Amino acid sequence: MSLVLEKLMVTLPRADRPLFEVSLRVEPGQVASVMGPSGVGKSTLLDAVGGHLAPGFRCAGRVWLEGRDVTHLPAEARRIGLMFQEALLFPHLSVGDNLAFGLSPAVKGRAARRAAVATALERAGLAGMEGRDPATLSGGQRARAALMRTLLADPAALLLDEPFSRLDTGLRAEMRAFTFAHIAERGIPALMVTHDPEDATAAAGPVLRLSATGT
Amino acid sequence: MRLATLAALPLTLALASPALADWQATLDAAKGQTVYWNAWGGDDRTNAFIQWVGQETERLYGVKVELVKLTDTAEAVTRVIAEKAAGQDSGGSVDLIWINGPNFLAMKEQGLLHGPFTADLPNAKYVDLSGAAPAAVDFTVPVEGMESPWRLAKFVFVHDSARVAEPPRNMAAFVDWAAAHPGRMTHPDPSNFMGATFLKQALIELAPDPAVLQQPVTDATFEATTAPLWAWYDALRPNLWRGGATFPENQSVQQQLLNDGEVDIAMSFDPASTAAAIEQGLLPETARVFVPEGGTIGNVSFVAIPYNAAHAAGAEVVANFLLDPATQGHMQNIEVLGSFSVLDPAKLDDAGRAAFTALPTAPALPQLEDLGPTLLEPHASWMTRLTGEWARRYTK
Amino acid sequence: MSDGRGLRGLVLLIVGTGLLAPILAGLAETASAAFGHLPALGFDGWSLTAWHALAAEPGLATSLRLTLVTGLGATALSVVLAMGAVAALAGRVPAARGMRALAPFLAVPHAAMAIGLAFLLAPSGWIARGLAPLMGWALPPDLASVNDPWGLALILGLLVKEVPFLMLVTWSALGQIDAGRQMAAGRALGYAPAAIWAKVLLPQLWPLVRLPVAVALAYALSVVDMAIILGPSNPPVLAVALTRWFFDPDPARILPAAAGALVQAAIVALGLVLLWAAELLAHGLGRRWVRAGGRRAFGPGLAAVLVGGLLTLATLALLALAVWSLAWRWSFPQLLPESWSLKFWLASGRWGAALGMTLWLAMASAALSVALAILWLEAEDRGQRTRARWAEALIYLPLILPQIAFLYGLNVVALRAGLSGHPGAVIWAQAIFVFPYVMIALTAPWRALDPRLSRAAAALGAGPWRRLVRVKLPVLLRPILTAAAIGVAVSVAQYLPTLFLGAGRVTTLTTEAVTLSSSSDRRVVAVYASLQALVPFVAYALAALLPAWVHRNRRDLAGAVPA
């Protein structure tokens, strides 16, 4: 099921013109890239899609996901996962509890939930690290754990905010492949903000260029 | 235990006498009550005694006592007034007040007291409540059963005999003594009752006609009677501690000054307090009591019950327990409180008298005969005028 | 995302009814008594009786003068010393370590500190005992070194408490401006560090510390407990005189007391105007000084030495409390007690109830305040709005308004509602003063929390309450507990709210310590004051240890506050 942005416009507080107007369709398994100079509103676009806009930001147009109009739903009801530059695991929870926090409540029963977390960790090359303090993981481990946490929530779409920019070159390629493979396997649409043309090339999906005058 | 038997005595009597049948009703109503006893909390031994009273009344009558410590008795009076102001005419927060003098007068005049109740207390039979007996008038104001006596107070001075061999012999002599020992003597602030008593003690000695002090004050009598007092005080004040510009807040603070050696003379309303303080490590072993030749002011401390007290029955039970000979004997014990009894020795039976025999003694504890005659408190209106005038003259 | 309108409404309702309404109602009752309307005492209708009575009070002019001299003097000195000392120390001592060293002095309640200082400064105190052999004193000198008619001992007492407070505030404000690089830039231009402080950093710091200075000023102008213990007594400062009149046996004195309470409020207002005028004046003069281009300035070194002296006094004062609490006989001029005793500590039957009540009031008022602060901040988060100026003013209102101006009236209201004398009423009255400090302490760390944590949780399907409870609160555990500990310390220190609303039935360590400070037994007072000082210490220690233990296996949280 696809993610559709229909004449999506965001206007900043006290501004009279919208920052941008975007129409875009991202098919299941596809990764669309959003590129453009700093300050043009790339992250604001992700916020609008994910439901993280601050009040005062005016949003027009529509966001469709799996045929549902999610434009006015709160973030937690949209089923749109979010990946940041930094992995941003919750610092007070162990690695396993971070994943369990994400794990969809549809998975019931303590044993089943524990097994789901264990499987996800194994797939991320983190087998047996349930009890670890997230602060003790390496950058790559953290990024993989964060992706697993996001996927365990069973999202219908994924937003990636410069997900690989903090990783060094070798790790970046590996992580890119790991992330895109999972997106393809899940068959969900993804929207990625990036500065790195290699990201867009590897994603092989539609590319949206935001410019200061709007699209 | 003798105490228990004695305390149980009124109980047996109550069942026998029809007049005291009401008392049984009071006891029944009191059972399970907690009496909030508002009392000046500056004296530890008194606080401990009140706690003991609470333990005993709980054991004997099921009446608990909660001591509400006050910096000044007036706090409790204010509280009752505030409650009346707010229309709280029952269920008030104050059940029993340690009171006398102007505070009693103020509450009596404004109808803030419960009673008369004193004559109904079974143990009232041990007290002389007739005419002008010390327990029947409070600062010349007739008690009329609106408060019940519990301890005897007599004004005394305290000195450290190691530092002052010859204390002043009368109030007039304080001027010369202070001139010879500048900065070594003071008195509590007259806004405090002990400071006011110091002035009254001098007033009684210096007044041209002390008899007018027993009448309510008028402008004319005040002017004429206090003129010698102010002349005396003006001569004394420059040689007081800190030049007479600052005064200790109360007699406890002054006692501490005596203990520290900051002053040589302190004062108390309790002749036994010096011996007690020595035992507590609060005064040097050489501290002794002295009184001016003409005698000193004496009065009786009372307990009163506010008109809106939530636990008036319990408060009456406590007031009655305080008049029990066993209680009074315990109170007079120097190791407990050392306060002289308010009971009339002539009215005591053998068992009652036994409570007072063989009480321990101490070198700093004066005998009753050492304390000289007891002078009557002036009418309460004098104290108010006196302290007001003092504030006007010396608070700049 | 939910905009939290419902939550904001709830917070406004709680703050309005629980905090603002009582203050306004109390003020109204006080004002109505001040203008002669006190039907309960037979004063009906409006009159100026109260004002005439106030004017006739002996020593009123002296009281007013003392209030202004001690309040303004102590605050001006505190500001100068605190700023100077931070200027001298900031480059040399790491901020975190400096602030940690100051915290204990902040934790000690005013009454306990005042009692300790009195033990130290009195003519028979520790200092005089130390000097006795040199001066040949066999008896204490007849010097008014406490309760002096000029209020110097009171000023010193206020300094000991306010300087650490203002230093802490200044030091943490320093972290918000880029002090290090500005200092480097200034020195490269040939300016001495003290001159850079005065000309460059101070003007930037001032807006950040202005409100805390105003709080300190309002406090110094209306302090009661410390003024009872250290201040002049004949006559005392206005706030103490008012407290005496409110509790006078002659009920008619409530009238001048109520009028005086309004005067007290006016004095604080005057103090704030003077503060503002001083700021304008300093601004004008400072500009001229900056343009003159002088490279030198002096003072910080001296200020640091003086502050060192103050903190030494404070430490000795606390030590004096401990020694007195263990003494049996300790006569002048002995430096240490002649005999020792544990009797007063062992007599827990005497202080146990007061300690229990103190803990209960402190925990309840701190918990209520923390809960309300969390709701307030969460409501701000959900609305993602900055705090309106009126809301900020509302938080500071109870700290600026003199307590005596509305506590009498508040108690009249409580009496009508049948609440006076109930611990609940005291908890409520204390929370009015605890909440602002908790709110101020929690706001900065709350806002510093990475907002993406909450977004990440939302993207994982967590609703607003789950985000609050599962993510924000655990991550903010340390600052929340610190705020709670501050709340406990503030509650323990409260004197007037307990006195007025407790109707004498609610005794705490503080009311006992202040009452006993005018008794004859320093040893008992010392036990109460030591306990009073210990409770906040324990609260701070728990606030530091508990999160460290809970997060012992979480490297990012075990250390400092998460940024």
Task: Please tell me about this protein's structure.
The complex is a heterotrimer of chains A (215), B (396) and C (563). In chain A, 34% of the residues lie in helices and 22% in strands. Chain A has helices at 42-50, 75-78, 95-102, 110-123, 139-152, 169-186, 197-203; strands at 3-11, 20-26, 31-35, 58-65, 68-69, 80-83, 157-161, 190-193, 207-209. In chain A, helix 6 (169-186) links the parallel strand 7 (157-161) and strand 8. In chain B, strands 1, 2, 3, 6, 10 and 11 form a 6-stranded mixed sheet that branches. Chain B has a 3-stranded antiparallel sheet with strand order 8-7-9. In chain B, strand 4 and strand 5 (141-142) form a beta hairpin. In chain B, helix 2 (21-30) packs across helix 11 (312-322) and helix 7 packs across helix 8 (219-236). Chain B starts with a helix and ends with a helix. The relative contact order of chain B is 0.19. In chain C, helix 3 (60-89) packs parallel to helix 7, helix 5 (110-121) crosses helix 24 (522-550) and helix 12 packs antiparallel against helix 17. Chain C has 563 residues and is mainly α. Chains in contact: A-C, B-C.
Sheet with most strands: strand arrangement of chain A: 6-7-8-3-9
Structural class of chain C: mainly alpha
Please identify the top-level CATH class of the domain at 3-93 and 153-209 in chain A. Alpha Beta
Average of the residue pLDDT scores of chain A? 89
Which CATH architecture of the largest domain in chain C would you pick?
Orthogonal Bundle
CATH topology of the largest domain in chain C: MetI-like fold
Query: What is the oligomer described by this structure?
Result: heterotrimer
Query: Based on CA inertia axes, which overall geometry of chain A fits?
Result: globular
Read across the widest sheet of chain C, the strand sequence of neighbours is: 1-2
Mean of all residue-level pLDDT scores of chain C:
90
Q: Count every helix of chain A, treating DSSP H or I runs of 4 or more residues as helices.
A: 7
Q: What is the CATH class designation of the largest domain in chain C?
A: Mainly Alpha
Largest two-chain interface: B-C, 66 and 59 residues
- Please identify which CATH superfamily of the domain at 3-93 and 153-209 in chain A we are dealing with: P-loop containing nucleotide triphosphate hydrolases
User: pLDDT under 50 segments of chain C (min length 5)?
Assistant: none
Total of domains of chain C: 2
Largest sheet of chain C: 2 strands, antiparallel
